[in-house]
Design a protein that fits this description.
By secondary structure, the chain is an all-alpha fold. The chain has ten helices and no strands. Helix 2 packs antiparallel against helix 3 (55-76), helix 2 (31-52) packs parallel to helix 4 and helix 2 packs antiparallel against helix 8. The longest helix is centred in the last third of the chain and has 31 residues, at 151-181.
């Protein structure tokens, strides 16, 4: 369930901007339910593997629950974008685990993907094309207008992308040594423990930076207004017999 966004408050536009930003971030990153659905397959895998040390049964159980979560969303006609991305990631992990016969194989694809995201966020911020702006621009209906028309938001997206990059890289600087030198059970539990806190911290920094930034330019509304004005002009011209 999405958080309720309070109606605009003309007496406190800053508070209204924070509320809108919070709601948009909540939606973009899946909210509480999306987070739980992302964590559950991995948690089930490490729990079963800790008990029986059987890679096959652990991987199959994780894959089955990921598919079940998607089915439940489909039956309830809920948004499935986060669930589908989760089941894809779990599916790749299951395939790696079954192919290699190693529990560490279940975690490796997600670790590579996460580390790659950390590099991408950092580099995008450094070159002035912050990845977070590309991701969140459509959510705020501003698309890429922040690049040329809203320098305050571009600066906020740059800071937020850099924060995401640093947090992700720090997380995987902890996990990869465990992958190489630790055992699979230790790696699994540490990975579960580090699943939520870095994400919460990154989203928090994003909210802080964007809440203080200028409001987004609603390019969708601009386009609709231009289209309406064009139609009105054509209608007026027809009435004049032009």
């Amino acid at each position: 369930m999405r958080p309720l966004v309070p109606p605009p408050n003309p007496q406190d536009p800053a508070a209204d901007q924070k509320a809108v930003t919070q709601a948009a971030l909540f939606d973009a990153f899946g909210g509480i339910r999306g987070t739980v659905e992302t964590m559950l397959p991995g948690l089930l895998f490490v729990m079963i593997y800790t008990i029986n040390k059987d890679v096959r049964s652990s991987a199959i159980a994780a894959g089955a629950v990921a598919v079940l979560l998607v089915i439940v969303r489909l039956l309830r006609k809920d948004t499935v974008k986060h669930a589908f991305s989760g089941v894809f990631g779990v599916g790749v992990g299951v395939a790696f685990a079954l192919f290699t016969g190693s529990a560490k194989g279940f975690y490796l694809p997600g670790m590579i993907y996460g580390a790659g995201l950390g590099v991408a966020f950092t580099l995008s911020a450094l070159v002035g094309f912050p990845l977070l702006g590309v991701i969140l621009g459509p959510v705020f209906k501003e698309n890429l207008s922040w690049r040329t028309r809203n320098p305050g938001r571009k600066k906020a997206y740059t800071k937020a992308s850099l924060a995401w990059g640093i947090i992700f890289l720090a997380k995987y600087a902890i996990l990869f040594p465990l992958y190489w030198w630790g055992d699979a059970t230790q790696l699994g539990w540490v990975l579960i423990a580090l699943k939520l806190p870095p994400m919460v911290l990154a989203v928090y920094f994003t909210w802080v930076f964007l809440a203080k930034a200028p409001p987004p330019i609603d390019v969708i509304a601009e386009y609709e207004a231009e289209e309406a004005a064009e139609k009105a002009a054509k209608a007026a011209a027809r009435e004049r017999g032009v």
